[in-house]
Design brief:
By secondary structure, the protein is of the alpha+beta class. 18% of the residues lie in helices and 32% in strands. Strands 1, 2, 3, 4, 7, 10, 11 and 12 form an eight-stranded mixed sheet that branches. The protein has a five-stranded mixed sheet with strand order 13-15-16-17-14. Strands 5-6 form a two-stranded antiparallel ribbon.
């Protein structure tokens, strides 16, 4: 006989405040067990050293998570000037020490940071999860192997100096997806001429959750109860963060067709936030006649919508 699943069929999104230490997957598994959820995943990893917003998706929300990863992100980071490490952060081995220029000041740092605003090409650090020829870079780095990395197109929307004193500085950064703050800090250090690494890093937001509260592990434990009601109250709905996508509400007959993998007419697609684009392959949210989200569809030929992600809420 097949093994019975343990845990709950839970669906929704939690904005978790990751603590320092441990990988994103390690803290994800602790939260999953706390919620007694059958299935969970996270969007956008954070380094072990980093803290802050880590959206955790439960159940069918995991099918939608990749449509959140494209979002912009915000960080606060403390730079240690004069010291470079192999990982570009405080967890790495020190490879060089240099003096911070004696006359270097906050105004000069502001000017250097301004030079990184806008579209940039950034070389990912060796200690990262990017794959090259099927190998994770951080695994190669552990073996002492360094390989050439292709620069990646990124964008910095905002960089502000929050504090500067001697050999430390604190920055606020908002940027596009796929950006490495460690690489930015390393590049700033080289512009100064003394090198630098990340001492602390906190992710302050993941768009579009810019102003929403995060919940840490202690707060979750305080809400733990036999019926999980107080924990479940912290979850956002499946479609949280997908408001940028147009939506289509189906009739009962169309709902049955969509849930069985069939195309439905594009019909009356509503779009309150962005200009509607019905180009083939563009994504929209799909709702049933009872207003329940059914999944995501993609515009296809002949003014149809084909199922892209179908949610099974049982």
């Amino acid at each position: 006989m097949p093994r019975r699943k343990r845990g709950r069929n839970l669906h929704g999104i939690l904005l978790f405040d990751k603590p320092a230490g441990g990988s994103s997957n390690q803290v994800l598994q602790r939260v999953r067990r706390l919620y007694n959820a059958n299935k969970a995943g996270h969007t956008g990893s954070l380094d072990p050293l980093a803290t802050g917003m880590l959206p955790i998706c439960f159940g069918e929300a995991t099918k939608l998570s990749r449509f959140l990863i494209d979002a912009s992100k915000g960080y606060e980071t403390t730079l240690k000037l004069g010291v470079t490490t192999d990982s570009y952060d405080a967890d790495g081995e020190v490879i060089q020490r240099r003096d911070v220029p004696a006359d270097f000041n906050a105004d000069q740092l502001e000017a250097i940071c301004a030079g990184f605003l806008g579209d940039q090409f950034q070389v990912p650090p060796m200690v990262s999860a990017i794959k090259i020829d099927g190998q994770r870079l951080y695994k190669l780095a552990r073996e002492g192997i360094e390989v050439e990395r292709e620069p990646r197109a990124v964008s910095f929307h905002h960089i502000a100096v929050l504090g500067f004193s001697g050999d430390e500085a604190t920055l606020s950064v908002s940027c596009s997806k796929g950006t490495y703050i460690r690489s930015l800090v390393s590049d700033i250090g080289e512009k100064i001429g003394c090198g630098a690494h990340v001492k602390t890093l906190r992710r302050t937001f993941v768009s579009p959750f810019d102003s929403l509260p995060m919940w840490n592990e202690s707060q979750l434990n305080e809400r733990l109860s036999d019926d999980f009601a107080d924990l479940d109250a912290l979850l956002m709905p499946l479609d949280a963060g997908l408001e940028h996508l147009p939506q289509r509400h189906l009739t009962e007959a169309e709902t049955q067709a969509f849930m069985h993998g069939q195309t439905v007419p594009a019909g009356d697609v509503t779009d309150e936030n962005v200009g509607l684009n019905r180009a083939i392959g563009e994504i929209c949210r799909i709702y049933g006649s009872d207003q329940r989200m059914l999944g995501l569809g993609a515009f296809s030929e002949h003014d149809k919508i084909a199922p892209k992600r179908v949610l099974q809420m049982g």
